[in-house]
């Protein structure tokens, strides 16, 4: 997990490594920390912003209109644990879990996070997040294109399913 390393200069988007795909995003999400690491001012208060799901991580970008020392918060799937989705009666649905600090991530230790979806979408986001984390753990991340030869043609698996390619309909990007 890293602090302030995954946002664009104007805080309207995310910076992700080559080969990674943005799978979905949710606006008007609130990030708070129920258990905070000691010695860091980044984790106090509730942050409002946009949540991005990529093929390898969850990235929260604080709204550009909000004054907060945390501009972005990146959580790779392999550093997240104990994730649950909660459906309270009178408040928005939320995802809760534990995140471990990454080496050189701007903080140390672990924190318990809460992502509240004020305009809905928590269940759909959590389902896609679990699917993406499972795919990444298997080495076939969602959103990437993987091709191999098979009879009677070339089969391409993408994050959205499969497509059969033949000599009459060749795979894009292949000679």
Strand order of the largest sheet: 1-5-4-3-2-8-7-6
What is the number of helices? 1
Spans where pLDDT lies below 50 across 5 or more residues: 144-149, 153-165
In whole angstroms, the N-to-C terminal distance is: 39 Å
Rg value: 18 Å
* Tertiary shape: globular
Assign a percent range to the helix content. under 10%
Query: What's the number of extended β-strand segments?
Result: 11
Order of helices and strands, N to C? EEEEEEEEHEEE
Q: Which structural class should the secondary elements be placed in?
A: mainly beta
Can you walk me through this structure?
The chain is mainly beta. Helix content is 9%, strand content 41%. The chain has one helix spanning 122-137, and strands at 2-3, 22-35, 47-54, 57-62, 72-76, 80-86, 94-100, 110-117, 146-149, 154-158, 161-165. It has an 8-stranded antiparallel beta sheet with strand order 1-5-4-3-2-8-7-6. Residues 144-149 and 153-165 have low confidence and may be disordered.
Which tags fit this structure?
single chain; 175 residues; mainly beta; 8-stranded antiparallel β-sheet; 3-stranded antiparallel β-sheet; 9% helix
